[in-house]
UniProtKB/TrEMBL annotation:
<dbReference type="GO" id="GO:0005737">
    <property type="term" value="C:cytoplasm"/>
</dbReference>
<keyword id="KW-0566">Pantothenate biosynthesis</keyword>
<protein>
    <recommendedName>
        <fullName>2-dehydropantoate 2-reductase</fullName>
        <ecNumber>1.1.1.169</ecNumber>
    </recommendedName>
</protein>
<comment type="function">
    <text>Catalyzes the NADPH-dependent reduction of ketopantoate into pantoic acid.</text>
</comment>
<dbReference type="InterPro" id="IPR013752">
    <property type="entry name" value="KPA_reductase"/>
</dbReference>
<comment type="similarity">
    <text>Belongs to the ketopantoate reductase family.</text>
</comment>
<dbReference type="Pfam" id="PF02558">
    <property type="entry name" value="ApbA"/>
</dbReference>
<dbReference type="InterPro" id="IPR003710">
    <property type="entry name" value="ApbA"/>
</dbReference>
<comment type="pathway">
    <text>Cofactor biosynthesis; (R)-pantothenate biosynthesis; (R)-pantoate from 3-methyl-2-oxobutanoate: step 2/2.</text>
</comment>
<dbReference type="Pfam" id="PF08546">
    <property type="entry name" value="ApbA_C"/>
</dbReference>
<dbReference type="InterPro" id="IPR051402">
    <property type="entry name" value="KPR-Related"/>
</dbReference>
<keyword id="KW-0521">NADP</keyword>
<dbReference type="InterPro" id="IPR013332">
    <property type="entry name" value="KPR_N"/>
</dbReference>
<keyword id="KW-0560">Oxidoreductase</keyword>
<feature type="domain" description="Ketopantoate reductase C-terminal">
    <location>
        <begin position="180"/>
        <end position="301"/>
    </location>
</feature>
<dbReference type="InterPro" id="IPR036291">
    <property type="entry name" value="NAD(P)-bd_dom_sf"/>
</dbReference>
<feature type="domain" description="Ketopantoate reductase N-terminal">
    <location>
        <begin position="3"/>
        <end position="141"/>
    </location>
</feature>
Amino acid sequence: MKIAIIGAGAMGSLFGGLLARTCQPILYDLNQAHVDAMRAHGLRMSFSGQDEIAEVTATSDPSAVPAMDAVILFVKSPHTRAALLDGLQRAITPDTQVISLQNGLGNIEVMRELLAPAQIVQGFSTLTSDLVGPGHIHVTCDLNLHTAMWPLTHQPDARLQELCQLMNQAGLQTVISDQVERDVWMKLLVNASLNSLCAITRQNVGHVVDHPGTRRILESIVYETADIANAKGLGISRQAALQHVLHVAEKTRGHVPSMATDVFNRRPTEIEAINGAIVRAGQALHIPAPATEWAAHLVRCLENYDHWAA
């Protein structure tokens, strides 16, 4: 099966590196130093106490990605449209399945504008990884955390089943599940609370959960998001929501979310697709989400650090 990873940062590299155990994925990314390092030395994946070198095909040239059976998107939400239009028409044919394992809300809506419904697969993953340097990732989670996928047609075909099988053989615990929308909101709970607070405090997950002040804010964000998800009919109680976030946090204590590294490196974050999207969903349902909104405002402020600090 011909598979391309579009957006081979920390998470895309993790999936691409593990899939290299069972197939030969192409990793596409615009970080030239990272691509060059993977080409020269392979992808170094550091797990707890051991390293694994994955021999992968990496490129920053979209014309070097031929027609694919499956394309897995890991680009940041603001870049979804550009990624699908960035010369990747050769890779994405009418027969290509495009799987979004991205953070936040709104990616599927962009895909609907550019692709046929039969091509689109919504998914999510609770795995975490940090990009240590060019060609090197640190896997910051238990690989037993799972990944799920579900096609927009609600009819999983043989290709999706084959991809799921390859992912499981590679060590990625993957299921085809019609509960993906609920799962996406379960991941939103994690992203909206942990990612935003790690970005604001510039701390890892463990520090945010352990500190009593950030823990209180985390709980407020989780409860607000759960209330909105419940109003959408997704059946996520406050208790279940908090239990889920704390479970993920315990599995990823040393992780520094990409939103925090984006703030540190003064890059745009995914705050609009995560906290911003939750606030907008709450407004549509007349459910306030003040803690979630405050966190969004603070991250936006940090995104514009150079401007207001001057």
